[in-house]
Design a protein that fits this description.
Blueprint (H helix, E strand, L loop, with lengths): L8 E2 L8 E11 L5 E11 L9 E4 L4 E7 L2 E2 L5 E4 L2 E4 L7 E9 L9 E5 L2 E5 L19 E10 L5 E4 L2 E7 L5 E12 L6 E4 L1 E9 L5 E9 L7 H18 L7 E7 L6 E2 L4 E5 L12 H16 L8 E2 L5 H19 L2 H20 L11 E2 L8 H18 L1 H15 L3 E2 L1 H12 L17 E9 L4 E9 L14 E4 L1 E4 L2 E2 L12 E4 L3 E6 L7 E3 L9 E4 L3 H10 L3 H20 L5 H18 L4 H8 L4 H8 L5 H29 L10 H20 L1 H14 L3 H12 L4 H13 L4 H12 L6 H8 L10 H14 L1 H4 L5 H13 L4 H8 L10 H15 L6 H11 L1
Parallel strand pairs: 2-12, 18-19, 19-21, 22-24, 25-33
Antiparallel strand pairs: 1-23, 2-3, 3-9, 4-8, 5-6, 5-9, 7-8, 10-11, 12-15, 13-16, 14-15, 17-18, 20-21, 25-26, 26-31, 27-30, 28-29, 28-32
Helix pairs in contact: 1-2, 2-3, 3-4, 3-5, 4-5, 5-6, 6-7, 8-9, 9-10, 9-11, 9-13, 10-11, 10-13, 11-14, 13-14, 14-15, 14-16, 15-16, 18-20, 22-23, 22-24, 23-25, 24-25
The structure holds arginine and zinc ion (ZN).
Zinc ion (ZN) binds next to helix 3.
Organism: Hohaiivirga grylli
Cofactor: Zn(2+)
Family: Belongs to the peptidase M1 family.
Length: 876
């Protein structure tokens, strides 16, 4: 067992930097294995720092070549250098230039942090602490400075040279095969936003005219030969830029904006100033290679990174504890953008599904942490669903609590007062206190308290008095390090629904938008003049990230499904009925008659809604996922029983819906050319769901239709959906389809990723052998994060029965991979291991196997800080 104590960084220990950096000049001479970096930083003491502190710069696996002060070589006896730090005690007590030369090997950099080479392209990833892998620096977000970068490389190897800011000059290096480019970024920024790119790239671009009439050259760079797949990303970028002007009054601020797609990338993308670098999965799209879901993902990640230019870059974070300041807010902004560009209810429901599938389990497990964590040992492990998705919900709640006008005004105040600074959550909330005149100190507790509040609601109708009373209580279970919880401020958006629609709300505790604010452990409100007994519709539009218990019978829930004016609660009503049935089935009840009754209602719903709103219909007909059921049951989970219950529920649904399935499926057949817009995608999503339902109950028919759909498909959405349906039907047709698909796309790694993932989630015992074979595919590479995620990520996160096998072989598969991968890419390893977050919820024998697998990883020598942190917390 590894016992060395990795240092813990604490929010309460924050101190300003002892030094300022006035400016930095970087000279980077790119070479596949011997890149040279000469950094000249202009330094002075920070009056707010410790006046006698030595100059201590951060490094990580650095090779130091020389140190100069004011151009004079410093003798090695006058500094202490290790790969992790450079400490200088003798320097002038005034502004001075420090010049440091380091040597890097981008090809050997498999951690994909700092400067590395991806498929022949030089690129960087500096967030959170990657810049220190390029040169010694004050690598902390509150040290902001102006960067000038000279990039040099072989003309053939890297004809394109990109940096932050605006291009200054470029030219050839005389008497050599090399050339250079100089970039200057006038906006002071922290080191984590630094980036360079060098490579042989294609691009698409255009001129964007900003709201004040300035021209900006915007471009998307991709690997040679893939230029025809960059148009959608460019289009999404242009729409994002326009939206931020119109919605938040935010204009772009440089002369150029470049996006570069690379094939080896740890995360989704990175918002480096003026030079966003992307995982190519979130850039490249053609109708033949990308699904509707991929297009939607590209649109939202392009928007997300672009929006960071204001929420993240112009205003950055004081320290990494404030990560949600930029991430929660920027996710909120990208969600609003997608909702404006597409169907708002469909986007909202999809976002809520993601939150519940990823953040709720996190909040309920060993890795639970507040949106603003109080401490960390490895910051990379806090780029979580809690910081991002729950963080976005907190911003949304804030808007609900103070109203849209005060929210917009508060954003303006925030932009005006914090521009150019490294800010905190307090700065952010302060802007909204100012705009709304409200005290937000109680609301602020959401940022410090982990766990999902559980709200119990009870309704009582008094027919004589014509009043309706709602009783609320809130409870939050303990989380690691937080044994007791306080009541939070919870906006409850609500309505009273009857078969004639919404009743007017006559209650002094509810504002004009139908919002009641619950801020105590329990509270009650009473509505007057309630003419008939209504069904309460609470937490409309998911007005708070909470779990809700409300005793409504199926009849009441069906009233909501049909008559609620709130689309989220219509959808939720069907989900609630289905989840209850599933839980009872897992407990051994036979609910056939009730499922049939529920399915008949869904049949009626489908007949009424399918034509006018296919996307929403598809969401309602999609039964709760395995993770929804796990959360509902809580502990002693039997994955096989959950899988079986879901299968039975879907079969009954399918047989009750059978009169409409095939006709509706046929009527939704594609005509005309492919378009990724939301309306077209909505039709395809319903059609593909119908195919899945057909196959549930009649695998022969399903197989036939799926094969025909593969033959006739004009786009990847249809093609892949049909393959997914086939993947659940064991037999030759499936195996042949897999083989065919694998051959056809053998040179398309992003398409193969779908194929890898689809096979890795087959809920059959033989999947382990299949995974073994997949990893022998020439397209598979353990060094590529997308490949590893496609095979092992999909298996661990989405193959419930096989990852949690009673024989423990699923856990062992992931542990074996983790032990190997940790030496190559710790960040990806740690991320995959979060799949163990629910091990204590599994029943008997599974827990012992999971614990043994985790302990086996923990016992490895030289485990990375990333992996060891996740494993230790999971075992605690
Ligand atoms: N700031 C990026 C985004 O959300 C994420 C980069 C995180 N990278 C990392 N290595 N932790 O847009
Ligand atoms: Zn982000």
């Amino acid at each position: 067992m590894k016992t060395d104590t990795t240092p813990i960084v604490r929010l309460e220990d924050y101190r300003p930097s002892d030094f300022h950096i006035e400016k930095v000049h970087l000279d980077i001479s790119l070479h596949p294995t011997e890149t040279r970096v000469i950094s000249t930083i202009t330094l002075l003491r920070n009056p707010a720092g410790n006046p006698s502190a030595p100059l201590a710069l951060d490094g990580d696996e650095l090779v130091l070549k020389s140190v100069k002060i004011e151009g004079e070589e410093v003798s090695p006896s006058d500094y202490e250098a290790t790969p992790q730090s450079l400490v200088i005690r003798k320097f002038p007590e005034r502004v001075f230039d420090l010049t440091i030369e380091t040597a890097l090997n981008p090809t050997a950099n498999t951690k994909l942090m700092g400067l590395y080479r991806s498929n022949g392209i030089y690129c960087t990833q500096c967030e959170a602490e990657g810049f220190r892998r390029i040169t010694y620096f004050l690598d902390r977000p509150d040290v902001m400075t102006v960067y000038t970068t000279r990039l040099e490389a072989d003309r053939n190897d890297a004809p394109v040279l990109l940096g932050n800011g605006n291009p200054n000059e470029r030219g050839d290096v005389p008497d050599s095969n090399r050339h250079y480019a100089i970039w200057h970024d006038p906006f002071p920024k922290p080191a984590y936003l630094f980036a360079v790119v060098g490579g042989n790239l294609d691009h698409v671009g255009k001129t964007f005219k900003t709201m004040s009439g300035r021209d900006v050259d915007i471009a998307v760079y991709v690997e040679k030969g893939k230029g025809d797949r960059a148009d959608y990303a460019l289009d999404a970028l242009e729409r994002s830029m326009r939206w931020d002007e119109q919605t938040f009054g935010r204009e772009y601020d440089l002369e150029v904006f470049n996006v570069v797609a690379v094939s080896d990338f740890n995360m989704g993308a990175m918002e480096n100033k003026g030079l966003n670098i992307f995982n190519d999965k979130y850039v490249l799209a053609s109708s033949e290679t990308a699904t509707d879901g991929d297009y939607a993902g590209i649109e939202s990640v392009i928007a997300h990174e672009y929006f960071h230019n204001w929420t993240g870059n112009r205003i950055t974070c004081r320290d990494w504890f404030q990560l949600c300041l930029k991430e929660g807010l920027t996710v909120f902004r990208d969600q609003e953008f997608s909702a404006d560009e597409r169907s708002r209810p469909v986007c909202r429901i999809s976002d809520i599904k993601t939150l519940r599938a990823r953040q709720f389990p996190e909040d309920a497990g060993p890795l639970a942490h507040p949106v603003r964590p109080p401490q960390y040992s490895e910051i990379n492990n806090f780029y979580t669903a809690t910081v991002y998705e729950k963080g976005a919900e907190l911003v949304r709640m804030l808007k609900t609590l103070i109203g849209a006008d005060a929210f917009r005004k508060g954003m303006d105040i925030y932009f005006d007062s914090c521009d150019g600074t490294a800010a905190t959550m307090e700065d952010f909330l302060g802007a909204f206190e100012q705009s709304s005149g409200k005290d937000l100190s109680h609301f602020a507790k959401w940022y410090g308290q982990a766990g999902t509040p559980h709200i119990t609601v009870k309704g009582h109708y008094d027919a004589t008095a014509k009043t309706y009373k709602l009783d609320f209580t809130q409870v939050t279970q303990p989380t690691p390090g937080q044994p007791s919880k306080e009541p939070l401020v919870i906006p409850v958006s609500l309505g009273l629904v009857t078969s004639k629609g919404d009743l007017p709300l006559d209650c002094s505790s509810v504002n004009e938008n139908g919002v009641f604010v619950l801020d105590k452990a329990s509270d009650s409100i009473v509505f007057s003049n309630v003419s008939e007994e209504p069904v309460p519709s609470v937490f409309r539009n998911f007005s708070a990230p909470v779990k809700v218990s409300l005793e409504l019978d199926s009849k009441d829930l069906l009233t909501l499904l049909v008559h609620d004016s709130d689309p989220f609660n219509r959808w939720q009503a069907a989900q609630t009925i289905a989840t209850r049935l599933l839980v009872r089935m897992v407990n051994g009840e036979d609910c056939k008659a009730e499922i049939e009754a529920f399915a008949s209602s869904l049949l009626e719903f489908t007949n009424e809604t399918a034509a006018s709103d296919p996307a929403f219909t598809a969401l309602v007909l999609t039964m709760p996922g395995e993770s929804d059921i796990i959360q509902e049951i809580g502990s002693d989970i039997d994955p096989d029983a959950i899988f079986k219950s879901r299968t039975i529920l879907k079969r009954i649904l399918s047989s009750v819906l059978s009169p409409v399935l095939v006709p509706l499926y046929n009527s939704l057949a594609n005509t005309g050319p492919y378009s990724p817009d939301a309306a077209s995608a909505g039709k395809r999503s319903l059609r593909n769901l119908l195919l899945d339902l057909i196959a549930c109950n009649n695998s022969a028919e399903g197989e036939k239709l799926a094969q025909a759909q593969i033959q006739s498909a004009t786009n990847m959405t249809e093609h892949f959906a049909a393959l997914s349906v086939l993947s659940h039907i064991p037999g030759n047709a499936r195996e042949n389809a897999f083989t065919e698909f694998g051959k056809r796309y053998s040179n398309e790694p992003l398409v193969l990723d779908k194929w890898f993932a689809l096979q890795a989630v087959i809920p059959e015992e033989s999947v382990l052998g299949r995974i073994e074979r997949l990893t022998q595919n020439p397209a598979y590479a353990i060094s590529n994060p997308n490949r590893v995620r496609a095979v092992y990520g999909a298996f661990a996160m989405s193959n419930l029965t096989q990852f949690n096998r009673a024989d423990g072989k699923g856990y062992d598969l992931l542990a074996d991979l983790a032990i190997k991968l940790d030496k190559i890419n710790p960040q990806i390893t740690a991320r995959l291991l979060t799949a163990f977050g629910s091990w204590r919820r599994m029943n008997g024998v599974r827990q012992a196997h999971a614990e043994a697998a985790l302990k086996r990883i923990a016992a490895q020598p030289d485990l990375s800080r990333d992996t060891s942190d996740i494993v230790q917390r999971s075992l605690a």
